[in-house]
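Hi R.,

Here's the chain you asked about this morning:
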Amino acid sequence: MSKDYYTYILASKRHGALFIGTTSDLAGSVMDHKCNMVEGLTSLYAIHQLVYFEHHAEAAAACARATALRQMHRIWKLDLVEQHNPDWCDLYEDISEPFKSSDYSCNPAAI
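And here is the predicted structure, written out as tokens:
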């Protein structure tokens, strides 16, 4: 059974603070950030919008891509998001179907 891995970018707002992460559970990880269950920059600066993500077949590839993104100049990261998501929409709704019926105590729609 193969597992899916993701590299993702969260933003506080258009051209705001950015966070780059990797996960094997994209919807769950974004939900955790939205609900401030992850201590650190994302909760401190309200970095809750999923603005970009990539799928990878292997964890090592996802981690390598995240490392490469972190080393990029900020303007290149902003350009990457704008190429794929020019309106900086929160992509969470597109990937959150598994959580619509879950018992999560946090409601990200209210955030």
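One quick note: The chain has a mean pLDDT of 89.

Cheers,
M.
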